[in-house]
């Protein structure tokens, strides 16, 4: 008789089900052993090996055991390996990864005449049940605590100490170390708070204590009776609103005058009066809008604008119409001279003064480290000046040097993971092996950067180029082969990292004696451009790292053909002259980075620029 498979299955259905259940149970038990029970047994075995190794070490070296009742000694897994206590490596179960060296320990306590061993082993997911967490310390008051220079620091103390095993502990068990706080020097110091639970697990928290000094007091302490900095080598650097400034001194009204260390732009003075000048208009629009901390600035500042025929005997009887931003006057220059006739203001970056010379067309300027009269319709460098209100104006760090400038109390540098487009105009960024400055943020959050000096290629060579072929007059044109615009877009761009680099529209201005914001313009689209003379930070940088020979400006000239302007920056003179378009000059570049750019490190200064992820 033929037996069908279906009949057999039906006949032995119950047995098959039972067998399947048994096999499934066996499989579960096997898997449970492989992935749970077995690893746990292996871990507990490692724990025992670790404990035995330490016990055997102390058995051989009893002199190292704690001497007094309640004393203890701790050996880490790293100690066990270093001292040859363990003959084999302890691995995380089912892996070839080693158990934690520093977080694993055996602690031996002397309790009466006996010694007790407690082991905590950390192997990935597997951890001993021994108490290994220190108590949680909660502080009274805030962090940081603000203390005034020469003041007294009184610690606010501890609010509570709670341990996960021992419960609430006495706050007197916390050791407080205030020894690092020095109220005789501005800066930020740390107070440490340390507590131990019964298992001698350690916890530590810190509180920042910031010692600040009133900026006025600092200036008075470092100047003579005139409260004015004099001479060439003086520590009067101040980091303010993302830019590096020099403190000039204290004004009669108590405000503090500061001047930008670098040239902010190159502008035609363009008037026989400072109040009507192109320079004043630019300072109180373009530059003022770039300042982050406007509340610190005296909004109705006035500046000396006397006509000065003798630069060595200036007067200050005529004042400008009040405005937030101005420039240095001949009087400021005179007051900054020491007995040897030297001044920190003459840092080889040429710049306009506010004073005319007695002629209708000439204005005082600094050139090659000396005052000179200069034609007002020429392009000259601009160094902005503002007066700071001193109410609540405190310095929290720095010594006033170039590498450690004074830093105001509420000035915060960018941090890791901050978006670059949240940072301040003027701050420095290291990108593609070149140092750049943030000059604007567009409406989409993309970041405009201008190079601090001539940019360098991938082999660290300065990039030079000629302006190239032109039509009726020199103008940047990315579509015209051999034109500088084409070279920038098609060749120079290849030397710059493409990680964040984006194409962008650029406004190119006509160079004329009209106001900077009333000139004719044209628009190009490219990866790389160069600055117009009136663009922020188009001027020379005072840092020796960026001292350069000559670099092109983008302004086009319609007054005559065959010439374009360049900055003559030999020895940092910083004034503008014209050259034939076929001459080779440096490329001081402008680029846009996408809003995705994120800070990885740095603080945005010339000495520590931001690096990007």
Please mark out the parts with pLDDT under 50 across 5 or more consecutive residues, or reply none.
Answer: 559-563, 566-572
Structural class determined from secondary elements: alpha+beta
Number of strands: 39
Helix content: 10-25%
Number of domains: 4
Distance between the termini: 80 Å
Radius of gyration: 36 Å
Strand content: 25-35%
What is the average of the pLDDT values?
87
Silhouette: extended
* Contiguous helical run count: 7
How many strands, what sense, and barrel or not for the largest sheet?
Answer: 11 strands, mixed
Description of the molecule:
This protein has 4 domains: 5-127, no CATH class; 136-216, Immunoglobulin-like (Sandwich), CATH 2.60.40.10; 222-388, no CATH class; 413-612, no CATH class. 15% of the residues lie in helices and 30% in strands. The relative contact order is 0.09. The termini are far apart. Strands 7, 10, 11, 12, 13, 14, 15, 17, 22, 23 and 24 form an 11-stranded mixed beta sheet that branches. By secondary structure, it is of the alpha+beta class. The chain contains 7 helices and 39 strands. Residues 559-563 and 566-572 have low confidence and may be disordered.
């Amino acid at each position: 008789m033929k037996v069908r498979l279906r009949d057999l299955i039906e006949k032995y259905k119950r047995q098959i089900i039972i067998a399947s259940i048994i096999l499934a149970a066996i499989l579960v038990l096997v898997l449970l052993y492989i992935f749970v029970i077995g690893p746990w047994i292996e871990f507990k075995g490692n724990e025992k090996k670790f404990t035995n190794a330490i016990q055997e070490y102390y058995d051989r070296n009893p002199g190292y055991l704690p001497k007094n009742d309640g004393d203890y000694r701790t050996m880490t897994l790293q100690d066990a390996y270093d001292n040859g206590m363990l003959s084999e490596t302890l691995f995380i179960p089912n892996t070839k990864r080693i158990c934690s060296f520093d977080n694993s320990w055996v602690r031996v306590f002397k309790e009466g005449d006996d010694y007790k061993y407690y082991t905590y082993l950390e192997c990935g997911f597997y951890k001993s049940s021994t108490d290994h967490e220190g108590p949680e310390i909660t502080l009274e008051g805030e962090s940081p605590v603000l203390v005034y220079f020469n003041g007294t620091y009184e610690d606010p103390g501890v609010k509570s100490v709670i341990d996960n095993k021992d419960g609430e502990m006495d706050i007197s068990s916390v050791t407080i170390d205030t020894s690092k706080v020095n109220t005789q020097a501005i800066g930020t110091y740390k107070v440490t708070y340390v507590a131990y639970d019964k298992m001698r697990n350690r916890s530590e928290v810190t509180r920042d204590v910031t010692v600040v000094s009133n900026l006025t007091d600092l200036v008075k302490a470092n100047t003579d009776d005139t409260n004015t900095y004099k001479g060439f080598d003086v520590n009067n650097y101040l980091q303010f609103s993302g830019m590096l400034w020099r403190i000039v001194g204290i004004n009669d009204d108590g405000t503090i005058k500061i001047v930008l260390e670098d040239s902010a732009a190159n502008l035609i003075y363009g008037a026989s009066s400072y109040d009507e000048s192109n320079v004043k208009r630019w300072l109180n629009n373009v530059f003022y809008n770039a300042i982050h901390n406007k509340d610190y600035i005296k909004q109705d500042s006035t500046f000396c604008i006397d006509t000065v025929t003798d630069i060595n005997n200036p007067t200050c009887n005529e004042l400008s119409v009040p405005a937030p931003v101005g420039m240095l006057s001949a009087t400021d220059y005179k007051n900054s001279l020491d007995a040897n006739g030297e001044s920190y203001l003459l840092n080889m970056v040429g710049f306009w003064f506010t004073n005319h010379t007695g002629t209708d067309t000439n204005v005082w300027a600094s050139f090659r480290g000396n005052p000179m009269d200069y034609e007002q319709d020429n392009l000259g460098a601009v160094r902005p000046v503002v007066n700071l209100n001193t109410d609540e104006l405190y310095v929290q760090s720095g010594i006033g040097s170039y590498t450690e400038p004074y830093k105001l109390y509420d000035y915060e540098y960018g941090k890791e993971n901050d978006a670059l487009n949240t940072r301040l105009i003027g701050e420095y960024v290291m990108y593609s092996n070149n140092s750049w400055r943030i000059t604007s943020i567009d409406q989409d959050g993309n970041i405009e950067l201008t190079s601090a000096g001539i940019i360098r290629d991938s082999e660290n060579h300065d990039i030079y180029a000629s302006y190239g072929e032109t039509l009726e007059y020199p103008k940047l044109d990315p579509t015209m082969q051999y034109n500088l615009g084409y070279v920038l877009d098609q060749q120079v761009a290849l030397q710059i990292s493409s990680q964040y680099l984006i194409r962008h529209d650029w406004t190119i201005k006509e160079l004329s004696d009209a106001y900077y914001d009333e000139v004719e313009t044209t628009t190009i689209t490219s990866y790389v451009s160069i600055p117009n003379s009136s663009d922020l930070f188009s001027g020379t940088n005072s840092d020796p790292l960026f001292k350069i020979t000559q670099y092109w400006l983008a302004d086009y000239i319609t007054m005559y053909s065959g010439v374009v302007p360049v900055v003559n920056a030999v020895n940092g003179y910083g004034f503008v002259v014209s050259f034939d378009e076929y001459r080779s000059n440096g490329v001081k570049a402008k680029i846009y980075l996408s809003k995705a750019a994120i800070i990885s490190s740095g603080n945005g200064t010339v000495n520590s620029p931001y690096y990007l992820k």
